[in-house]
Specification:
By secondary structure, the chain is an all-alpha fold. The protein contains 19 helices and no strands.
């Protein structure tokens, strides 16, 4: 991450110095490039704090609910149900550990398009994984794999993108559901393979975990295989259900989830109010912890964009990307998606509302699918690792960018095969 951070800032500075020299020898009345760069980096620093403060409410709400789930033992139940599959993916995590349940909640929320709900669940999973970390400050294999899956963004219903397409006058706003599903499945598969492969190249000292007799008993005492298979079948059933009725019922999901969690807490005779406020307090503390990490990455990205370095790269490689099915108008999405969520959303909006392109053109479908096929890698790494004070991220960035690249190419193939064959 050190070199990425330095590269973004140094390339932005170098590009701006060149533009400043050209500006000084011209008669332009516009603001100097260096002045624009300075304004942008200060603005980005403020945006980082604003973003973190904006997360406080959502984090407090869902971390409060997570505390109730934890005290009722529901996380352990979820972990036991999906233990065989999760144990294959994360062999270093002890059986029925609370991290399993939190990861399942996070991934499930992502799948059905509840991005705001997914983040607190993911942060809870990172906190639980940190408890197993024998090397504080260094990412474990489980952390890297979990975040690689998050950056690949396995999504069944890209609700925000569908809404943007509808507002842009698309004749078929939901036409990207199938293409997005194909692309995100490809990116998730590659993310898992990349994380597993790269961890063998840079394995840290293996953790030494001493399990109590009770924990050893828990390893043996998990649900029968047929129960786990039934749970997995139910998750897979969410795919066709989401495709058919997700748009109609998505507004019901979060309110129903909250009532169900509180009701389960009452049934288990938990002091749900005290538990909720205690968890909400932890959510507030997490929001404060991630501010320095957000400031660093958003300032670097803001400088990179404002300097014109991104535009220069786009113009340089466009002849090559045109040949493989990525037109120049879609290239900003390729570069912006891993860097900035708001930036990539702006790129999508510009393309969809461009009269020369439109939402139902090849480019319109392509950028829409690209937007839904992966997540904002740098933001996820900054927030999730920042919440547990991880500074050595090992192969997390490489795995995330490989997943991003896969999602982009898979988007091209999916759109061509499913919509323009």
């Amino acid at each position: 991450m050190n070199w990425v951070f330095f590269f973004l800032i140094a390339s932005a500075y170098g590009t701006t110095v060149w533009q400043q020299w050209r500006w000084a020898h011209s008669s332009s009345q516009e603001s100097s490039p260096m002045h624009v760069l300075t304004d942008q980096l200060l603005h980005s620093a403020g945006d980082a704090v604003t973003l973190a403060i904006g997360l406080v409410g959502v984090l407090a709400l869902f971390m409060g609910l997570m505390k109730i789930i934890e005290e009722t033992g529901l996380l352990n139940v979820i972990a036991k149900l999906l233990y065989p599959f999760l144990k294959w993916l994360f062999p270093e995590i002890p059986a029925n550990h609370p991290a399993f349940g939190a990861m399942v909640m996070n991934l499930s929320a992502n799948m059905i398009g509840l991005g705001n709900a997914a983040t607190p669940f993911g942060l809870k999973a990172m906190q639980e994984l940190e408890k197993l970390n024998p090397h504080p400050g260094v990412a474990t294999n489980a952390m890297v794999l979990f975040l690689a899956i998050n950056t690949s963004s396995l999504t069944l219903l890209p609700t925000k993108i569908i809404a943007l397409r509808a507002s842009a006058g698309s004749a078929d706003p939901a036409g990207i559901i199938a293409t997005t599903l194909v692309a995100t499945l490809c990116s998730t598969f590659v993310a898992i393979v990349a994380a597993k492969f790269l961890q063998k190249l840079m394995t840290p000292p293996k953790p030494t975990i001493t399990l109590s007799n009770q924990h050893i008993h828990e390893i043996i005492d998990h649900f029968p295989g047929w129960v786990s298979a039934l749970a997995m079948a139910f998750l897979l059933l969410l795919v066709p259900i989401t495709l058919m009725w997700g748009k109609e019922y998505s507004p019901w999901i979060i309110p129903t989830l909250i009532v169900a969690i509180l009701g389960y807490g009452i049934r288990k005779k938990i002091d749900i109010y005290s538990s909720f406020t205690e968890g909400a307090k932890a959510g507030f503390e997490i929001a404060l912890k991630i501010i320095p990490f957000l400031v660093a990455i958003l300032v670097a990205i803001g400088m990179f964009r404002a300097s014109g370095a991104l535009d220069a790269v786009t113009r340089t490689i466009s002849p090559i990307t045109d040949a493989i099915g990525i037109p120049q108008e879609a290239l900003p999405m390729v570069f912006m998606r891993p860097l900035s969520g708001s930036g990539s959303l702006g790129v999508l909006s510009d393309v969809l509302n461009n009269p020369a392109i439109g939402p139902d053109s090849y480019t319109g479908y392509l950028v829409s699918t690209m937007m839904g096929s992966t997540e904002t890698t740098f933001y996820i790494l900054a927030v999730y690792f920042g919440a547990v004070q991880i500074r050595r991220i090992r192969h997390a960035l490489a795995a995330g960018l490989i997943a991003d690249l896969t999602g982009m190419f898979a988007s091209v193939i999916a759109v061509k095969m499913l919509l323009f064959s």
